[in-house]
Amino acid sequence: MGSEVVEVGAGELGFGQVVEVARRGAAVRLGDEAVTAITRARTRIDELAQSPTPAYGVSTGFGALATRHIDPALRARLQRSLVRSHAAGSGPEVEDEVIRAMMLLRLRTLATGHTGVRPATARLLAGLLSAGITPVVHEYGSLGCSGDLAPLSHVALALMGEGAVRVRGGEPVPAGEALKEAGLEPVELAAKEGLALINGTDGMLGMLILALDDLTRLLRTADLAAAMSVEALLGTDRVFAPELQALRPHPGQAASAANLMALLRDSPIMASHRDDTCTRVQDAYSLRCAPQVAGAARDTVAHAAAVAARELVAAIDNPVVLDDGRVESNGNFHGAPVGYVLDFLAIAAADVASMSERRTDRMLDVSRSHGLPAFLADDPGVDSGHMIAQYTQAAIVSELKRLAVPASVDSIPSSAMQEDHVSMGWSAARKLRRSVDGLTRVLAVEILTAARALDLRRPLTPAPATAAVVAAVRLETPGPGPDRYLAPEIESVTRMVEAGTLLTAAESVTGPLA
């Protein structure tokens, strides 16, 4: 469990705070300002609940059943029934970090004072997060409109003391049992609370923020991998010069090129072919255009981050309680803004991985590797070297291309055509998580291959920064030699990429990369 306590107020929540709670188990506290805002809105909901005038979500049914006015004696049952019926997910369990992010983001919306829940209900959600109680949520069930209904319903079910939960990653246990063990009391949902707990895009937004955290690291790692491959393939760094990048002033491209220059600085390998004996006019695109592709991906991440930042100050529910006391229906629960950028990021991840695989393939081909042995094998023909490691990359890249097909262009009507256009944002987020994992593995294979190629360039030595990365890789995997069981080495380097270990090694020489 993380040592930080994240306070959820009525204002913005930072990306880093979401990551702390989701990935490092930070505890959560509901701020005093938030309690004041929640109490004010609840007062208005209580007034509506006593009124004879029907109010959607308070005294009516839901979706296509909104035309039915619900008798006051049935309204507690209405909220229970809503949560129980909507907790209809199926398939594999969703990862704990995704569920915790979703819970935190729903709490943040409750804290705005625009949903009408009671303070006790919001405090219980914070209590689950702090106690490490994570409801079991399933892969399938959300259409991304009205928000992530089924996933959030499984969370709301746990607040009622029903359904299954995991406590700090343990085996599933009944929610009521876990709450009692943690000293928490289940909530009896009051008017509108069930709807307020489930009507948001928090699942897809949580996955977007986690992906942004991953991709920020992975795109710097892509620069690192490219630098190692350029060096191993006796390429040039002149094309990364800032005056050339300035001719096409995309910020991501400039940052990527600057990273490549820093990583290749003072390289004896690069210096060995700077004289007139080098007859190559220019490198292949996968080397020369590395900052253009990784830079475009960076700019895509920046755009997605801007969308996520706006979502982090949004109050997504239907209906909402406005500051003047009005309770109004709206369409802010539609997931299109988040779904689009989730799909866009999957496209960027696929393209960066595709370029990485092409660089790997060049290092293995004697006709293009400029003096390296075939497949970097110890005894080519007897040994196959990294031949099949590249197959693994190619298989992943092919999968990433399929995952790049947008989910957000699809829509399927539901709720008797009341919800006749949906975002599929949850599906976009789920496939992006697979894309991020695939990109991680593709970069790991390139780095493992480039490290072997750099070792094979001896007695020439790589740049201090890339040499530090090779040294870090060698702490986990042996250097060139006869064929051996390769899968564990790929997994070791994959874990190093995930943990940022290799970036840390490079940055110990270069300083922070952009």
TrEMBL record:
<dbReference type="InterPro" id="IPR001106">
    <property type="entry name" value="Aromatic_Lyase"/>
</dbReference>
<keyword id="KW-0456">Lyase</keyword>
<dbReference type="InterPro" id="IPR022313">
    <property type="entry name" value="Phe/His_NH3-lyase_AS"/>
</dbReference>
<dbReference type="InterPro" id="IPR008948">
    <property type="entry name" value="L-Aspartase-like"/>
</dbReference>
<protein>
    <recommendedName>
        <fullName>Histidine ammonia-lyase</fullName>
        <ecNumber>4.3.1.3</ecNumber>
    </recommendedName>
</protein>
<dbReference type="Pfam" id="PF00221">
    <property type="entry name" value="Lyase_aromatic"/>
</dbReference>
<comment type="pathway">
    <text>Amino-acid degradation; L-histidine degradation into L-glutamate; N-formimidoyl-L-glutamate from L-histidine: step 1/3.</text>
</comment>
<dbReference type="InterPro" id="IPR005921">
    <property type="entry name" value="HutH"/>
</dbReference>
<dbReference type="GO" id="GO:0004397">
    <property type="term" value="F:histidine ammonia-lyase activity"/>
</dbReference>
<comment type="similarity">
    <text>Belongs to the PAL/histidase family.</text>
</comment>
<keyword id="KW-0369">Histidine metabolism</keyword>
<dbReference type="InterPro" id="IPR024083">
    <property type="entry name" value="Fumarase/histidase_N"/>
</dbReference>
